[in-house]
Amino acid sequence: METTVISGFLLILLAGGCSGTFALPFKHNSQWKWENNWFIWSIIALLVAPWIMAFISIPDLESVYAHESNTVLLVAFFGLLWGIGAILFGKGIDYLGVSLSLPIMQGLINVVGTLMPVILRNPSELLTPTGLKLLTGTVIILAGIIFFAIAGHNRDSKSRQTHSETPIKKNFRKGLIICLLAGIFGPMINFAFVYGAPLQEKAVATGASSLYAANVIWSIALSAGFIINLLECIRLFGKNQSWKTYRHRTTGGLIMASLAGVLWYLSIMFYGMGGSFMGVLGASVGWATMQSTAIIAGNVAGLASGEWKGATRYAIRMMVIGLVCLIGGVVVIAL
């Protein structure tokens, strides 16, 4: 394995770690509603950070966009679709809960984001040894996500029994549809990366380092996604009158929500850097590795913060089996 591929793989592992833990700062903003956190997060993660990094790392940025206007529009289109997916992701959790919704959504995001770039590029690649390895690793990863779903459902059921809580009845069918749509729209950010390749090439041609060339994509894609997230936050501000929430813990809340935004943006920036090192494998192998690492990091963070406190041995066993499958799937894909 070449040094550049190894470096790319390590960067993508780092991206997954940031992606899986970015929401931890939100735990310190218990007085804030979802839209209060998400609004600040969106400004930092989808607007401020991407453009700062684009201006810093891409010489003659305006010229790059001017010469690739059609690509810019395509990347923005996928960014808009991803923005819809980001909102649906949050709604899916609201309808079905974390333990049921996340495995469904992450599973689809992983599969669609991993396999579709290969299928769109050249479907026959799936029948090659590399393609078959990718398929095998994806199946193992999906098995791991299913085990996590079982573990999470058992844990939440036990928690409700222990606290004698009556579970809130939701429309399961509607929630399932939302989760499926979130899983389909979520990987659109990876499609922006794939179809934004001409922007990267132009950026490198104008003097940008290939390591940071993906920043020219994220500034456009994430800004488009910001529009969707902004509109949803404004709608919720009006519906819930939650602008007033910013009166509580203003400084600390802004710091925590901004930190979440920085962590998330680092995840997507590191993914772009790692994908550049890995070449054509970055959009498939890299995506699967990042998403699986994010699930692992998120669950490790959950263990450390006490989310699994009081869980049954069965739930812990299912979680460990899921963890082993995710690691095994990543190893199969990466080797």
From TrEMBL:
Cellular compartments per GO CC: membrane
Entry keyword set: Cell inner membrane, Cell membrane, Membrane, Sugar transport, Symport, Transmembrane, Transmembrane helix, Transport
This protein's record includes keyword Cell inner membrane: yes
InterPro entries attached to this UniProt entry: L-rhamnose-proton_sym_RhaT
Highest taxon in the source lineage: Bacteria
Pfam families: RhaT (PF06379)
Gene Ontology molecular function: rhamnose transmembrane transporter activity; symporter activity
Keyword Cell cycle tagged: no
Membrane-crossing segments per the record: 6-26, 38-58, 70-89, 96-120, 132-154, 175-197, 209-231, 252-271, 277-302, 314-334
Annotated protein name in UniProt: L-rhamnose/proton symporter RhaT
Gene: rhaT
